Here is the input.
Amino acid sequence: MTETALEPTLDRLRGGTPPRNHDARTIAALTANPGCARRGVMDAAGVDKDFLARELGFPSPFGQSQFAITRGNAFEAQVKADGCAELLTLLRDTLGLDVPEVAYDDLEVVAGHEGRELRHGRTRRLLARALETGEGTLFDHPLLRLDIAGQTAYLEPDVIAFQYAGRLHVIEIKSFAVVDGQAEPEQVAAAARQSAVYVLALRRLVEELGHPRELVSHEVFLVCPENFSNRPSATPVDVRPQLAVLERQLARLTRIDRILGELPGDLTFAPGEALPNSVRAVEARYAPECMASCEMAFFCRDEARACGATGTLGRSVRDDLGGVDSIPTALALADGSLEPSDDLAETAAQLRAADRLRREVLGGAA
Ligand code: SF4
Here is the structure.
């Protein structure tokens, strides 16, 4: 099914509300659980999962605090003030880059319009010109696209594309502090994953424009405040490992039209009494890792616990148990009260062996 043909279906799923834009965070998180049809459908349709979770009575504590958002915005505005003057000083002095003339283009709004197609068109034009003629240095808020499970997602831009020596680099401004050259590893890892999403989207665009993908560097520049001050510091980060994971997992995401074809023809996530059942109609693959990456986590955890899903014990346990999806079934196979089907015979034998060992160990201890 073409993307245009899917539009009415996705519109119905959203209950007629406009689609939410993806950003690098949501795409990086999407790859955390590529086998989850529920998340795949909601993200492809641009469903506001945060709103949905609240409607279902399972609000998620996701998102930054207002204080962190305000602080982040102030730091970003400072680094970008006067045509990115501080940023350029950093690139020249700290990183030793010989950046001669500088042209700064802000692509956030095009002639008073904020339409995504228009903004993406301008990003394309300016980057095409930059790659062909070398014109332009800093492109702020480039609006990029990425194919997610067969659907085009527009990436809300919060990076700068920086052209240097004929190559494009991603510059990401973050408000977490670098103290004595060290930052919180988890925050750096999350920033690297998000930057990798932008690198990939830029590479796809460069390829569409007829250039080799290597023109977009795997080295991104992370700009953060230094030592509890507001003074910015820049660190080059190699995102090749994150890129490899991202490309592999995006390729594994089930094509959305296949999942949609198996769902009821009148399914919608519009608010109302039927909402919980509508959500349950799309298969989920809950694992504790969802708590850190998906707004639906509290709803899905509740559902998974209620039916004793093996996923609640962790992804590795679910994988080890193969086709056994429920804990009561696993226990019944282990104590022999349930006869396994042929395809579960091996798993059942292992469960019985584990049960025997456990009894022996506990008996010995007694
Ligand atoms: S929380 Fe639910 S919808 Fe989100 S990825 Fe996990 S199982 Fe899927």
Summary: Residues 66-251 form one domain. The chain has a mean pLDDT of 87. The beta strands are 104-106, 138-140, 144-148, 151-155, 159-164, 167-173, 219-225, 232-238.
